[in-house]
Amino acid sequence: MNEQKLAEEKLNKYHQEHILELMSKLKDTQKQEIIDQILKIDFDKISELYENTKKVKEIDQNQITPINYIDKEKIDKKEKKELQKLGEQLIKNDQYAVVTMAGGQGTRLGFSGPKGTYKLDIGAKGKYIFEILADNLKKSKKLYNMLPYWYIMTSSENNKQTIDFFEKHNYFEYNKEKVKFFKQASIPMLTKEGKLVLENNKIKTASDGNGGVFLALNKEKMIEDMKSNNIKLAYLCGVDNIMVNAIDPIFIGLMLKQNMQIASKSVHKAYPEEKVGVFCKRNGKPSIVEYIELSENMRNERNKNGELVYGEANTLSHLLSVEAIEKVANQNLKYHLAIKNDLYKFEKFYFDAFPYLDDMLVMRVKREEEFAPIKNKEGVDSPKTAIEIYEKYYKVEK
Question: At 24, is the secondary structure helix, strand, or coil?
Fold first, then answer.
């Protein structure tokens, strides 16, 4: 049976006949591109995800309990020195990597390119987000005469633009041999009636969320690459936190000393209603609980020191052993529904991998030193607020 016939049968079987009608108006080459897409789509999975959108998600707050944390500021000098030495040794041994999740576009910022290529009004000339991240990692060269391997996750939407951007800017003087790009998977978007959408003569897809990072690392042979380079730990972070501190020997040393598979950085919530995910345990396993999952009592509950019990906010800064990455890469993480421009988008969350690991070390850091996310065009977590934090900390002059 030829490919077109197979594609037609699939579309008929899953009640997506409207695509056939749209395809009939296209040129042969354009039609073939869509046929190739159709043959790769797991329609059973798409149907299952669509049916799941009709179910009400139940939240069992009794499963949620607080998680312990260590405040970096309160570690005594002697232990800090010991931890520093442990962490520095791993970096100097070239056994350390950073994974930046950069599959998204700058749409919410009113910008059409990859988010990492967005230019911020910092200093006299301005700085691109990727440039800031590269500068932060290059500190390792000055301090320890060793640059970490830098794995950058792109998407089919922005992969070429991202690589071209790095080439154009000469990788911001980073060692090109140590930068590795890999693509996350995509999944079709649906209308609220469960129909596929044709846009720009292709079936409209979206990247599979930040939780796709583990599968992508595996599928694109990056875990294999890490192993061949004798990398022991990888720092996983998002592209949009310009204050991310990935070169942190104390954090690395603490994880090594406690022999953990994963360590995460938190900042204490600014106020009970701050809409951030917080670290917790769910059924005894490490997890992140979203703002909407906490009752008003849980959001406001305080311990004997007057601090919020559920107050350790997720900064998307995680340190994992390569073994832990490989372990969760082989798990089938669930999809969550997001509604974007009135379309259903399905995405995985990376923190759904945490329960597959036995325990987690959480280290609290100072917000003004390590957390300046860029999520919105204006207001909270915008370029303006991030620039203010960055310029104040680094004493940048215009």
Answer: coil
Bridge partner residues of 152 (DSSP): 100, 181
- The CA distance from 342 to 348, in Å, is 19
Instruction: Classify domain 41-394 at the CATH topology level.
Output: Spore Coat Polysaccharide Biosynthesis Protein SpsA; Chain A (3.90.550)
pTM: 0.95
Non-local (6+) Cβ contacts of 170 within 8 A are none
What length does the chain have?
398
- The full set of domain ranges for the chain reads 1-40, 41-394
Identify the bridge partners of residue 267 per DSSP, sorted by sequence position. 313
Using a 10 angstrom Cβ sphere, with 0-12 exposed, 13-18 middle and 19 or more buried, the burial of residue 366 is middle
Give the amino acid at 237: C
pLDDT in tens, the chain (398 residues): 588 899 999 999 999 999 998 888 888 888 999 999 999 999 999 999 999 999 887 777 789 999 999 999 999 999 999 999 999 999 999 999 999 999 999 999 999 999 999 999 998 899 999 999 999 999 999 999 999 999 999 999 999 999 999 999 999 999 999 999 999 999 999 999 999 999 999 999 999 999 999 999 999 999 999 999 999 999 999 999 999 999 999 999 999 999 999 999 999 999 999 999 999 999 999 999 998 889 999 999 999 999 999 999 999 999 999 999 999 999 999 999 999 889 999 999 999 999 999 899 999 999 999 999 999 999 999 999 999 999 999 998 86
**Residue 285 CB partners (closer than 8 Å, separation 6+):** 354, 355, 357, 358
Listed in sequence order, the residues at least 6 apart from 90 whose beta carbon sits closer than 8 Å to its beta carbon are: 96, 232, 233, 249, 252, 256
